Amino acid sequence: MMTSVTRSRRGTSLVCLIILCRGLVLGYEEYYEDFYDSETEPPVFTARSQSFTVELGQSVIIPCDAKNKGDYKLVIKKGVSGGYEQLLWVGREKMARTRRLQLDTQTLRLSISQIRATDDGTYVCYFGTNPPTKLQHKLVVHYPPVVLLSVSPEQRVREGTRVTLNCDARGNPEPIIHWSRLEGSLAKLQQHLQQHQQLVLPNVTHEASGTYTCSADNGLGLSFSASASASLVVEYPPHVIAEQKTVRSGEGGYLEMVCLVSGEPKPRVRWTHDNQIITPEFTDTFSKGHMKARKHNMDSSEYKIHYSSSTKYNVDQYGTANPSDITTRHMDTKTHPTESNIQDQRYILTIEDVQEADFGFYTCLAENNLGKDTATIQVTGFPHPPQIMSSSESDKYHSYTFKWKTESYYPVTEIMLKYQHKQLNGTVIMLDNFWEHLTTVIAPNNTSPSGITGRAYVPVVGKGDIQANEKGNEKANSSGQNVIHHLTLTVNNLESGLDYIGNAKVKNRYGWSADSEFFTFSTKKGLPMAIQHATSIGSTLHKNVVIYIIVLLLKF
């Protein structure tokens, strides 16, 4: 009996459940039938589709004004990348987790405050009618550029490498990219290619080392205020240049030898004298006897000198030199730093109380893991070849006065001049057998009122009449003697109106200098023909011209 009752109850429950479920389903369908009742007017947006342009930090109102809303729920969505949508609002329920978005449920207007770049996009107001009712707005957010470099802050490469610097600049409107180099204009680099956000250096040299900056500008904020920088370090073998190839001095004097050293990684430097090592270790400061080796560092325009003890050798290193800070001490041709080698280090070897044993050849050796290089400097007591200072044209018909200057630690004791006719029928002729050689000894005496410090009229070898003197000085050695000497020599008995070519050399206590460069000079033109013919009879140079003609005739 109990069993029958139980089964009856279970059956009754099942019947009730079925009836309940059927009623719910019928009620759901009837709800939507009422919802989509053709007699009910669907919602209509009264706002029009718009495009808004705002800047960071501002506010904007997105209108979703509508009529006949009824029981419909307003849905607001925002389009995001990849075709997806972000649900912001459904009816009265806020889906976006930010306080910057607020919806006025009466006016159906969405306000966004403190605009961010991520707010940029498409906003859709939506009612779930069939078909759906939609209103779309466009929000454009303008913001200043943000710049990122996709390389490390310091990039090290070898010479000859292709380097590409990438700049990721974001902003709205799209920014204009500008590349620059702290050490100078990019146009001064041999090769570079700017392709929008890329800077390509196809074959870098060490001159390309420096700090490169990518700047972006889109008219918002300060001009090119957004930037990012990276350092490019180009590694290369050492390069050594002697600031002077010859340094002149004498006993008891003081001298300096300078070499400019560049290389990356920073080279180690040492000095040798006649192949004998002065600085056995690669050091910045070294002392030996009466010589000093020291390194002189320069930070910007401020010199910082590191001196060793007061002995003979002294070596300085001067860092990152500016061309204006390097002075000319001697007449030799010098190599000064330029923009391409401003990172050179200046190493200076000084000798105090010079002795003859200090003369010879000094070598500056620089070495790093990529190679080595050297530069040689000669220390000598010989005078410098004389440099012609006088005009090429004489104001005399039969004489010419030479004016030279030369560098010599000791007094100049002799001058040797050789010369001959420059041209024959328009042809330059210099034959060894036809040089006129004139030599004079300069004997020092007391200084005259005119400033002459030496005078002599002693033709040792050659023809003609010559007069020579030495006067004045531009600088003195440690003993107060002339170092720059001004010499004057007058040659007489020349032919008028002729062009000559010649050179000279000078002598001091250590010997003769090398020959000077050839120079041309001429006597005054315009002497009357009769006088010119009379003065030329029997002259040696006239005979030489005749010999030239005979030689040319024999050749043809």
TrEMBL record:
Residues 1-27 form the signal peptide. GO terms for biological process: homophilic cell adhesion via plasma membrane adhesion molecules; synapse organization. Keywords: Disulfide bond, Immunoglobulin domain, Signal. The keyword Metal-binding does not apply. GO terms for cellular component: axon; neuronal cell body; plasma membrane. Residues 42-125, 144-231, 238-380 form the Ig-like domain. GO terms for molecular function: axon guidance receptor activity. It comes from the Eukaryota. The keyword Cell wall biogenesis/degradation does not apply. This is Ig-like domain-containing protein. It comes from Meganyctiphanes norvegica. The lineage of its organism: Eukaryota, Metazoa, Ecdysozoa, Arthropoda, Crustacea.
